[in-house]
Specification:
Strand content of chain A: 5-15%
Number of domains of chain A: 2
Structural class of chain B: alpha/beta
Largest interface: A-B, 22 and 23 residues
Largest sheet of chain A: 2 strands, antiparallel
Number of strands of chain A: 6
CATH architecture of the largest domain in chain A: Orthogonal Bundle
Number of helices of chain B: 10
Distance between the termini of chain B: 15 Å
CATH topology of the largest domain in chain A: ABC transporter involved in vitamin B12 uptake, BtuC
Shape of chain B: globular
Number of strands of chain B: 10
Strand order of the largest sheet of chain A: 1-2
Oligomer: heterodimer
Radius of gyration of chain B: 18 Å
Structural class of chain A: mainly alpha
Number of helices of chain A: 14
Helix content of chain A: 55-70%
Shape of chain A: globular
Distance between the termini of chain A: 42 Å
Radius of gyration of chain A: 23 Å
Strand order of the largest sheet of chain B: 6-7-8-3-9-10
Order of helices and strands of chain A: HHEEHHHHHEEEHHHHEHHH
Chain lengths: 376, 251
Amino acid sequence: MSIVDTVADSRRLFVERPGTAAIGAVVGFLLLDLVVKLAGTSVFFLGFKLLGGALTVSSLASMVLDGILVGLAVGLAGIGLSMTYSILDFANFAHGDTVTAGAFIGWVAAYVVGGLGTGASLADLFMFDSGQQLSALTALAPVLLGLVVAGVGTVAVVLLVDRLTYRPMRDAGNISLLIASIGVALAMRYIIAFVFGTQTSGVATSGVQFVLLDLAGQRAVTITDNELALLVVAVALMLGVHLLLQRTKLGKAMRAMADNEDLALVSGIPTERVIRLTWILGGGLAGVGGYLLVLESGTISFNFGWILLLLIFAAVIVGGIGSIYGAMAGGVLIGLVDSLALIWLPSGLTRAAAFLVLIVVLLLRPSGIFGGVTTA
Amino acid sequence: MSQQAQRSDEVTLPAPEESLLAVRDLDAGYGDLQVLSDVDMDVGDGEYVVIVGPNGAGKSTVMKSVFGLTTYMGGRVIFDGTDISQRSPDQIIHEGIGYVPQNENVFGSLSVRENLEMGAYILDEVPEDQIERIYDRFPILRERSTQKAGTLSGGQQQMLAMGRALMLDPDLLLLDEPSAGLAPDLVTEMFDRIDTINDDGTAVLMVEQNAKEALRRCDRGYVLVQGQNRYQDAGETLLNDQQVRQDFLGG
């Protein structure tokens, strides 16, 4: 293709799809800027700095790694939100606090077991007050136990909440359910605050760092044992969800019910059992996601899930709400944007960048990346 | 050659035990809205019965009521000697009735094979031999078995919907407007397929817009008006009745 053709093509693009072209131009500018920054120079025009700055390959790689890690945990939590939306037909605002609940349940278990025999009192251990910090490598058994307890405990919490609030109003409209979920969210958050207080506690710290990339003159790119644990567990669980949905009878029934609830009913699929499985799976993954996020960040507080909820929603909507694969992909995309936006924006504005990407994706593909090809 | 069709109020109903499906004095609707009143209907073993009537007569509602999808308000639905009038669809499916809804009757995001598997959800094992029989009946489904149902053509989706409903080898198949939305040449093909299913021993109760063709092929027909029985007789007799033709079959 000759240059003339390319120019003609891009001119046509600008005329026919100005939105796409404008977004393409912005992305192109940012990429060009990124290349100039990596080269370590700046381009000035009439005295204004147009492009450039200083960014090393290593710090870029660290940011990408960070984004993927947070994105995986967000994606894990997003699966449940997406499933309740497609199978139960409502946006569950209590999902963020379910994430918090899972993290607290799991970390109490890990912290207590990890601190046994150190002389710290049980009360101090329960309240994360013994001053110890766990890491995946140095305290493998307690951290693994906490992971399992986080999953199982959150399932119990979620089933209890469903039994007490949502099941009696199964036939109510989705607005009623949504509002009920806001009530559940508040109740869960302040029960946690009542028990554990509103301070932020440090519970985890990295035990070992593995060097991934060590370029001369730059800070090495490393991954901690805690981050590695998050990576492995999140990827394994996503793979597990995929196999469950594609290979098992109940998984197929879940997809069928997400697809067409009336037809599922006339096919003899036990809808109440599928709903219970939805809560079990979604709740368990949310709890594990929360637990892993705390493992990665090191700190836990009563409202971190609530703060995270908007990001989870963004991930789920970007991916196409109702799609489980969309939630996974959307989580990683939003995590990457949230992390990489630091290259161009001050740290307080990275969340805004994530939502900007959400808006842009919705303008280009209103049903989300995986929308319209929903698989549950 | 005009024959007189029997008016429903002049018919003596058989004893309910004599029919595979016997509907007696059925009142049903949706929520507070009553659609059917005092509907009687019989489908014998292996019989092919069609319900015709103007729009809004409650034809589909009869079938939904048999399958437990409406609000029960009175009367009886007896299938194979058992009163199923107040059972839920997932209980009724165990009794040997298959139902093909009119719209959205396949799981679009599931593969063709997975759709068939869902039809046999209540069994412990996937019945491979039954899937093979369905594939033999509708060879196109075998070719498309891994394809998503949503990508099939309208006629193929209709076959898949029937295949799903046949997975449990029901004694009675309920078909809600199987020819709706199909191209004219496919309509004949669809009717031929229903004939074959019926010839193999499955009783059929069908609602059909394409009333003349349906009456020509069926054993017996019912004319339903405003939620009540009006006429019932052999399909050919209904077709040849001056009054029925004029009022309900467009002359």
